[in-house]
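Same chain as my last thread, 453 residues:
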Amino acid sequence: MKKVILPVSLALLAGMTVGCSTTEYKKYAGDEAKQVASILRENGCMECHAANAPLPFYGNFPIIGSVVKADMTEGARYVDFSAMLEALESGQPVSEVDLAKLEHTAMSGSMPPAKFSHMPNHWGTSLDNDEKVVILSWAANERKARFTSPTVADEFANEPLQPLMESIPVDSAKVALGFALYHDTRLSADNTVSCATCHGLETGGVDRKQYSEGIKGQLGGVNAPTVYNAALNFAQFWDGRAADLKEQAAGPPLNPVEMGHKSFDDICTVLAEDKEFTKTFSEVYPDGFSQSNITEAIAEFEKTLLTPSRFDQYLRGDKSTLTAEEQEGYALFKANKCATCHVGMNIGGQSYDYMGIKNSYFDYRGTGLTDGDNGRYAVTKQESDLHKFKTPTLRNVMITYPYMHDGSINNIEDAVRIMHEFQIGTTISDTDMAKIVAFLGSLTGEYNGKTLQ
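reply #2:
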């Protein structure tokens, strides 16, 4: 084992503390979830991976105190296991992202870092082989039970990325109505903006602008996310303020910058002036126009916007659909921790993640902070949620530029480089960059039988 030289102040701890035992988990044989929970507790994981973790007594020591505080902040920003620990102990479902992050840690042996596990009071906290087996077995079983796609080939069933399902059950009459409403500019106060204005079906489900233009030429404060596959997101908007597609559809029409109506009563009045459309609407919704009916129809249409890709065919068992370079890119995508946030069928959209874990993205950007940079904090007002954003899907990423919540990055290579530098803390080589970008190209899907452009 590589020798680690500790500061004198840490060496003094040797006479004050004893090594940690990590065999407690064996008491829960037969219950993998509680075994994993025990490993998280006994191995000291929660000392850094919890937003409310108390500062250890040596966190106030000279020299090392600032290092300890920085490590705790970084650890909690990467993943806060508090909710996962509670779920494991109570038999509740866990986050797909938390699962992927813990699984990657066990496979890579990357945690805890040497400067933590070699502290005298943390000796014995590194995962041993038996603990890794428990974690990986639990992760595989949990994924199989809750996250495996019904269309995946057996050999890829335990992949962190999964192929799309064939479809989502919908009401076809509501879908047709929702399609019409999605393209209807009467949802805006001046009849100039529809849902499709900012989320064009011919442009990757986005408008390819840094900020979308609403009524009277007003610009929004964040980049418009794609509507394609949005039904698979665990929440909607960058800050997650809408729980589902129906709730999301109610936002823009009343946003003064976007579509500018004062109320849905106003929208219903405008639509009711169209006798033919009123007749069509009433055939689907006998109770007529209302916010609930309008937004439900739009959401029903958006559930159909799934875009299967060559990568989905690969995960379904047809390996010929990906080139050797694309397959190598997928392997790098997983090895470089990309698949710990961009997970599941939507290859993202399942968590809120901090932007700039390793370095300050906002200092790098150099334009000052805006309200759009608050992220999840705008909803929760919790300091730990500041600069956390819903991780976007990477499906169709090659055609949904510009990138990031602020739309400040115009090409995919810069996006990949920035994510490595600021989220992982590494510099990616040109060779690896080319392979990962090739893999991302395989995520461009089809809609209505045509490849998106």
